[in-house]
Sequence to fold (311 residues):
Amino acid sequence: MKLDPVSLKLFVAVIEEGSIADAAAREYLATSAVSKRISELEAALNVSLISRSNRGIAPTAAGYALVGMARGVLQDLDEIALQMRSYAAGTRGHVRIFANISAITQFLPNEIESFLAVHPQVEVRLEERISSAIVKAVAENTADVGLIAVGDYGQEVEYLPYHQDNLMVVVPSGHALAKKRTIRFEEALQYEFVGAHTGSAINNALGRAASEAGLPLRMRIQVTSYDALCLMVAAGLGIGVLPRQSASLYLKALKLRGITLAEPWAKRELAICVRAYASLPVAARLLVEHLRAGHLQATVNPSSPSSSAAC
Fold:
């Protein structure tokens, strides 16, 4: 037995209009075509659905039952079509984002909030990873979009500009460096560090800079978040390096001092990475465009919150 939506729709029209001719006119079909559809529907179901008389037609008991069920089916089909159009337009869907902690603490909260205000039915799934793991996940299609510190990660992905940030040194308020406004990294290397987790872009940058200076990088403790890093620094367990805007969340509360790191590599470029922009799902492409718009606004308008925080 095969039931098709067109026959059900025509049957509902016949019952609602009370006439095959009127139903045909409503659906812009020939009366004979509608009559044939109803007869085929009755044959398929092996039951009489309408009774015909000189006064017109009337649904049988089976017809009354079918018209209620048919309306429900047609409504469900309309909802399917509506939702699929929403997915096609990108107003509905889900996006998998992997981002490094710098992007998460500095830029993403406001940017995701403003994106979801426009696209409330898009589900954004955000996970924190180190940049090298993010690029690998994007290349393997585990993530749709990655937000990373620019670097050489050896994967075939596309990169788009995102934001800039500046690294700074954080120390306890009573530390020997606390009164300095700027510092060279060689001077900081006199002290033990609280570092981010192994493989992070910042740790790699510190390791390279220490190697170039010919001095050891004494990493006393490594943690997996900036709040943990700042708590360890506040406890006097070492000094730390993190982005300026991320540090600003903790300086006052933990009585820390932030010192500008006067090194060229302390000004970092963050990037969006995708496998192929042209083949992104619509919802993911809309999110990438939204993130890029934030980058362009920060570039054009240096007084914007994102831009000023990255200076």
User: Anything to note?
Assistant: The first helix runs from residue 5 to 17.
